């Protein structure tokens, strides 16, 4: 571990060190993501513009996630099974490139000039007015519950595929590509749905598709026919990807409408305030989802241990 | 499967019920959005005029 400045055998020191690093990273990341949050609402104003912007943002996000996953797979393990000696240089170069792109982009992007001269509200008054925004309060609770779903989906997908479905790896790749392709096709329909049904009902249709997907997984996505499970799970997974993936595109548009409502009430654009307070809602949701998921897994593993199951051959279901 | 499938179902059902009460939709809200668009344009115009005055 060449980048650690402390003795890795000392657990307390390692814990404090990683905690400080995580705090520093998360603080910087929150600064950056708050600015990023504001940007979208200034660039785009109508529902269609915001949905389109969100589609591109999600596509680039998917590419970035793919690079991170590929880099981890390529550089994490060496041929002898230990840490790949190229891991740290690769991470260093990747982080330097991305940091340079972010800093350069921050000089190019400019906010609307007249907004710079608007008098902001005081901290206390600003926060109080957020909680008087009823549409935003509703949307925040919706975000809270969709974030729980999102986190569980991302955390559990790997467990679900590798432990419950146990398909051959080439089939996993084909299935994931199929799911991704279905999602892309559905995105093409999303703008038409927004025009026809409006934001609220499009959001509810997407939630319903997601519910049907997860519900179907619960009933037909089990380890029933070894070797064939992936086929049974394929359609529910497409529904989950389509329904839930679309929510990640529409959700920022919903928040944007709430901020517009706030502007109507207060006469000021307050994306930053909403971005900051929004983080107070989404971050606990992520922690709760992870804790809940791990608690449930541990709970069922403990029950099976008491029943004398072999931990190596069981399904964590 | 309970943690992977059922908790998300419960969360999404609650989200759907809450979303049903979200009020920002319909012709009245569309009208408000148009008004806001006009306000933005007016603010920008006023700002540019202010800049021109200072230059003169």
What is this structure's SSE topology?
The complex is a heterodimer of chains A (317) and B (56).
Chain A: H1 11-43, H2 47-75, H3 87-108, H4 123-131, H5 134-165, H6 169-220, H7 229-266, H8 271-306
Helix pairs in contact in A: 1-8, 2-6, 2-7, 5-7, 5-8, 6-7
Chain B: H1 2-20, H2 27-55
Summarize the structure.
Chain A has 317 residues and is an all-alpha fold. Chain A has 8 helices and no strands.
Structure report:
The complex is a heterodimer of chains A (317) and B (56). With 317 residues, chain A is mainly α. Chain A has helices spanning 11-43, 47-75, 87-108, 123-131, 134-165, 169-220, 229-266, 271-306. In chain A, helix 2 crosses helix 7 and helix 5 (134-165) runs parallel beside helix 8 (271-306). Chain A starts with 10 loop residues before the first helix and ends in an 11-residue tail after the last helix. With 56 residues, chain B is an all-alpha fold. Chain B starts with a helix and ends with a helix. The longest helix of chain B has 29 residues, at 27-55. The chains are: A mainly alpha (317), B mainly alpha (56). Chain A binds chain B through residues 45-46, 112-114, 117, 134-135, 138-139, 141-142, 145-146, 148-149, 152-153, 156, 159-160, 164, 198-201, 203-204, 207-208, 210-211, 214-215, 217-218, 221-222, 254, 257-258, 260-261, 263-264, 289, 292-293, 296-297, 300, 317, and chain B through 1-9, 11-16, 18-26, 29, 32-33, 35-37, 40, 43-44, 46-47.
